[in-house]
C-alpha cells in the first residue's frame, strides 16, 4: 500500500518511535492522526506534520473508540495503523521488598499488549468496511514487539511477557484478517535511542552500546520508521515479526 492519501493512526506518537513514524508517514503523504495520553504533548508534532492530535489511553476501550472515531471523522477510516505506545519499567519478580506488585505487572501488559490489541481491533473493524485497493488490500497494521520477547533480561519479566504477547499475536491476527485484505506485521526493535534509553546515565549507555555487534550504536527512531514504511509498502510482508536489532542477542544480566 502506498501511504499517499491513506489515512493513518500512530499510537505513542508524542516521542520516540511513534513520533518518527508519524513524521515519515506525513512526509509520504498520509493524513496522520497522532495518538498519545496527552494531546498537549502532541501539539508541536501536529503543527510540524499537519497531523491531528488526539488524547488516547490505549488501555481504555472508550478512550480508544473516541480517538479512532475522531480520526475517521477528520481523515476518513484509517487504512494504516502503527502501534508504538509502550512502557518499560524494570522490576524483579522477587526484589528486595518482596514480590513484584501484581498491579505493576498488569500495567505493563495492559499498555503494551492489551493496548496494542485494543487499537488493532478497532482499526481492523473499520478497515474491513473500506473498498479494496490493488490486490484486494484494505489496510495494514504494524505492531511493535521487542527483542525482549525472545531474550528478556533480569528485571524485564513484565516487559518481555507483554512483548512476547505482541509477537505471538502477529500470525493469528494476520491469518484471521486476511479474509478482509488486512495485513498484520510486527517490528521487534533492539536498543533504540528513545527517551527511555537516552535518560540513562552515560556510562550505562556506553556499556549497553558495547554489546551491540554492528552498527555499534543505538538504533535511530527514523530507522524504525523506515522499516514501518517498508512493511506498509510491501504487500508480501504479512504475519511476520521482523527483528531490527543490529544482530544484538541480549544476555541474561
TrEMBL record:
Q: Please indicate which superkingdom the organism of origin belongs to.
A: Bacteria
Key words, A-Z: Oxidoreductase, Signal
> Signal peptide: which range, if any?
1-26
- State whether keyword Oxidoreductase applies: yes
Look up keyword NAD and say if it applies.
no
- Domain Ketoreductase, by residue range, is 6-190
InterPro entries associated with the record:
KR_dom (IPR057326), NAD(P)-bd_dom_sf (IPR036291), Sc_DH/Rdtase_CS (IPR020904), SDR_fam (IPR002347)
Kindly give the PANTHER family that the UniProt entry links to this protein: 17-BETA-HYDROXYSTEROID DEHYDROGENASE 14-RELATED (PTHR43658:SF8), SHORT-CHAIN DEHYDROGENASE/REDUCTASE (PTHR43658)
Family note: Belongs to the short-chain dehydrogenases/reductases (SDR) family.
Name of this chain's protein: SDR family NAD(P)-dependent oxidoreductase
**UniProt lineage:** Bacteria, Pseudomonadati, Pseudomonadota, Alphaproteobacteria, Rhodospirillales
Amino acid at each position: 500500500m502506498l501511504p499517499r492519501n491513506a489515512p493513518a493512526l500512530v499510537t505513542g506518537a508524542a516521542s520516540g518511535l511513534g513520533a518518527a513514524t508519524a513524521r515519515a508517514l506525513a512526509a509520504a503523504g498520509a493524513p496522520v492522526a497522532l495518538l498519545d495520553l496527552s494531546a498537549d504533548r502532541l501539539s508541536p508534532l501536529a503543527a510540524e506534520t499537519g497531523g491531528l492530535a488526539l488524547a488516547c489511553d490505549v488501555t481504555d476501550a472508550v478512550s480508544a473508540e473516541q480517538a479512532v472515531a475522531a480520526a475517521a471523522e477528520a481523515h476518513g477510516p484509517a487504512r494504516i495503523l502503527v502501534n508504538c505506545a509502550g512502557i518499560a519499567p524494570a522490576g524483579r519478580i522477587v526484589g528486595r521488598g518482596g514480590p513484584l506488585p501484581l498491579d505493576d505487572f498488569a500495567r505493563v501488559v495492559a499498555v503494551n499488549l492489551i493496548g496494542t490489541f485494543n487499537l488493532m481491533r478497532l482499526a481492523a473493524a473499520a478497515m474491513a468496511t473500506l473498498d479494496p485497493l490493488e490486490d484486494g488490500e484494505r489496510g495494514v497494521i504494524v505492531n511493535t514487539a521487542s527483542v525482549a520477547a525472545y531474550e528478556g533480561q533480569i528485571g524485564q519479566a513484565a516487559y518481555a511477557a507483554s512483548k512476547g504477547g505482541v509477537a505471538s499475536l502477529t500470525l493469528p491476527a494476520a491469518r484471521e484478517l486476511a479474509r478482509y485484505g488486512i495485513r498484520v506485521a510486527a517490528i521487534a526493535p533492539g536498543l533504540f535511542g528513545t527517551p527511555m534509553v537516552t535518560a540513562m546515565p552515560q556510562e550505562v549507555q556506553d556499556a549497553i552500546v558495547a554489546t551491540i555487534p554492528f552498527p555499534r550504536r543505538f538504533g535511530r527512531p527514523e530507522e524504525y520508521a523506515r522499516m514501518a514504511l517498508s512493511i506498509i509498502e510491501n504487500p508480501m510482508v504479512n504475519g511476520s515479526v521482523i527483528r531490527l536489532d543490529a544482530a544484538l542477542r541480549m544476555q541474561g544480566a
